[in-house]
Design a protein that fits this description.
Elements lengths: L1 H23 L4 H32 L1
Helix pairs in contact: 1-2
Length: 61
């Protein structure tokens, strides 16, 4: 459970930092897209791990 939380939290932090930096200073589009894409990817992986872990927990019971 900790690993999923770490991955989701990291994705959210990367997204927040990218959006904040884009608002404060002018980030190039490539850097902005890279940060947002990486954050979304990490969040999707974290959600997949949560769902997969819940299915395994139900199968174990």
């Amino acid at each position: 459970m900790k690993r999923q939380n770490l991955i989701l939290g990291t994705g959210m932090i990367i997204l927040a930092v990218t959006l904040l930096l884009k608002h404060i200073i002018e980030l190039p589009d490539f850097v902005s897209g890279l940060g947002i894409g990486l954050a979304i990817g990490l969040e999707l992986v974290g959600i997949y791990m949560f769902r997969n872990n819940k299915k395994q927990d139900k199968a174990d019971k």
